[in-house]
Amino acid sequence: MVRLLQIEFIKLLNNRASKILISSYFVLLTSIALIAAIKFDIGPVKFHLADQGIFNFPYIWHFNTFMTALFKLFLAIVIVSMMANEYSNKTIKQNLIDGLSKKEFILSKFLTVISFSLISTVFVFVVSLILGLIYSDYNEISIIFSDLEFLLAFFVKLVGFFSFCLFLGIFVKRSAFALGFLILWAILEQIVFGLLGWKVMSWDAAKRIKDFFPLESMTNLIKEPFTRLSAVQNIGQQIGENMSFDYQVYWYEFLIVLLWTSLFIYLSYALLKKRDL
Amino acid sequence: MSTILTVNNLTKKFGYLTAVKNLSFSIEKGNVYGILGPNGSGKSTTLGIILNVVNRTSGDFSWFDGQTSTHDALKKVGAIIERPNFYPYMTAIQNLKLVCKIKEVSEDKIQEKLQLVGLWERRNSKFKTYSLGMKQRLAIASALLNDPEILILDEPTNGLDPQGIHQIREIIKKIANQGTTILLASHLLDEVEKVCSHVVILRKGEKLYSGPVDEMLASHGFFELRTSDMDKLKDILDKHASFGKINQENGTLTAYLKQEMNAEALNKLLFDEGMVLSHLVKRKESLEEQFLALTKNN
């Protein structure tokens, strides 16, 4: 297993483009700390975002995992191209001839996906912990380490998303087209949802089905955190809107994403096995 | 002698096209094999199948008497297929280190092999800056990293300039002299003739012959003869039981033997008949002539 990871890291870290993308990704992850610096100070109106409670434990786990997940597109580019380049350079053929089995090849890519997700999760954990310790109003250990399921959700979400990218890289074989396909797929999920709700069934039923779509199920793992902010809640109450949304992460939501992940990895393997190179 | 590769009734179909049809042959340790065949005769497909990159339609093959899985067996094989494929953004050293990791061998051999193919000075240049000849030489170095039991080369001199071709051939000869088993696919016959002891000949995916080079045609060779009275010479040979086909071309008579006869015996025979030769050579068909004879649409 270590050997497979080493193989993949030799390929990645000697490539300047992926090195730049990977490092900018981690810089962006850290940049979430910059939100703390958002401060308006215009005469009587004083607004400091860090004081609005977004860095309070345990809310910060929800907020930071939601925000940083937006940056996953950077790694998606790296993952799609690390797969598609094997085809365009025909190095996949050489790897197999040199004695890597098809199973090992897929496994080495999947292990890379796992490590990227794991490093990201640890990174977000550390950054959030530091930010929280500085700005949070509550600093009891029991509060700090509650709601940690958002970190697990973050990890599973990344693994699922990157596995989808991996599959697209193998399926389409060209990085640009694969990324285009990814965007197309995201739009397609919304169109199918729209058609279902509009023509076929009730909007409630359509919403329930939408939760099973691959990209939607990943989005669903970490729901938007904004309406949970007390400031937003207050405004909601003033205008008479009921803001009691459900922010929990449920076990079946994990299950759906994990099922998609195994399907994508299995399909990648099946595709590689079936194709003549 | 141990068997390195056995191929049994291998068949590959691409849709309606049959690229390889019921192919069987085996490769013994220590010999140098050539796979010969015109373009599109299934050479590369066959190599692709035994190297685990092309799926077979039916039949089977086994490496090293079937004791290991194909991908483990390939770690003991060195192979180059068509174009050299490496990571363009990595240097020669980085690429070879990666190959070492895949083949699970130590990295100590990198220097030795790069020196063998004359690329040690360029070891830190990126692969994409190499000329085609250099790329091909790097591929050979990479294939040799594990001191393979068998080296498989598919058209190794394709697309190279004369110097490049010469360099590659010298390297192949050097490796063959060290006793490494080699399987060389080519349509360049002189290339195969120079190094191979055994050949497998393919046409349209079918095997026409496999075995030692000199047993390819059941032939006893032929004589090239010249004398002042060619007509009389032809008469004598026509009547003789040992000779089959006789051709006259450019003042030289070519007489094919039906049974064994040495040059001395012929010389004596003709002298007894009162004929004096100005030119007498006994030859065997070159590989090219044998190949053309075999692949002729018969």
TrEMBL record, chain A:
Signal peptide span: none
GO molecular function: ABC-type transporter activity
Keyword field: Membrane, Transmembrane, Transmembrane helix
Transmembrane segments: 20-40, 60-84, 110-135, 150-172, 179-198, 250-272
GO cellular component, one term: plasma membrane
Pfam family, any one: ABC2_membrane_2
PANTHER family referenced in this protein's UniProt entry, alphabetically: INTEGRAL MEMBRANE PROTEIN-RELATED (PTHR37305), MEMBRANE PROTEIN (PTHR37305:SF1)
Protein name in UniProt: ABC-type transport system involved in multi-copper enzyme maturation permease subunit
UniProtKB/TrEMBL annotation, chain B:
Pfam families reported in the protein's UniProt record: ABC_tran (PF00005)
InterPro entries membership: AAA+_ATPase, ABC_transporter-like_ATP-bd, ABC_transporter-like_CS, P-loop_NTPase
Domain ABC transporter: 5-229
SUPFAM superfamilies assigned: P-loop containing nucleoside triphosphate hydrolases
Any one GO molecular-function label of the UniProt entry: ATP binding
Key words, A-Z: ATP-binding, Nucleotide-binding, Transport
Family under the similarity heading: Belongs to the ABC transporter superfamily.
Protein name: ABC-2 type transport system ATP-binding protein
Source species of the chain: Flagellimonas meridianipacifica
